[in-house]
Amino acid sequence: MMKKSLLVISMMLVLAIAAGGCATKRDLERVQSQEMLNRAKADQAAQDAQAAKAAADAATLKSEDAAARAENALKIAEEREKIAAEKEKVAAEKEQIAEEKAKRAEEAFRKSMKK
């Protein structure tokens, strides 16, 4: 009889452990809802990452465009500076020619006054 009662107690203990160790429907639903929440968070994070990448790409394009415009402006400024230097050189040459002409005219006038 003792064996029988020991066997019954052992069986009850095994059943209690087995029932306690199994997940209930509620536990499964909680795990599923947590998994869905984690997936939603991961999807949102992926969308945020894509949006950030798109914004970074747009900023890169804008900065490249601004750099190209600045480079063009620099080239134009250099060309204008070169043209201004050439005009200054031409003006200096004209001034020198005018001075030489004035000198010759003065010499011609002095020669004419000596006669």
> What do the pLDDT scores average to?
88
* Radius of gyration from the alpha-carbon trace, in angstroms: 49 Å
Pairing-aware structural class of the strands and helices? mainly alpha
Distance between the termini: 167 Å
How many individual domains?
A: 1
Main β sheet profile: none
Helix content: over 70%
Would you count the extended β strands for me? 0
**Shape verdict:** rod-shaped
H/E element sequence: HH
**In what range is the share of β-strand residues?**
under 5%
Low-confidence stretches: none
The total count of helices amounts to 2
Explain this structure to me?
- This protein is an all-alpha fold and 115 residues long.
- The protein has one domain.
- Helix content is 96%, strand content 0%.
- The chain contains two helices and no strands.
- The model has no long low-confidence stretch (mean pLDDT 88).
Spell out the key features of this protein.
115 residues; rod-shaped; mainly alpha; 2 helices; single chain
Can you lay out the helices and strands and say which pair or pack?
Elements: H1 2-21, H2 25-114
Briefly say what this structure is:
The chain has 115 residues and is mostly helical. The protein has helices spanning 2-21, 25-114. The longest helix has 90 residues, at 25-114.
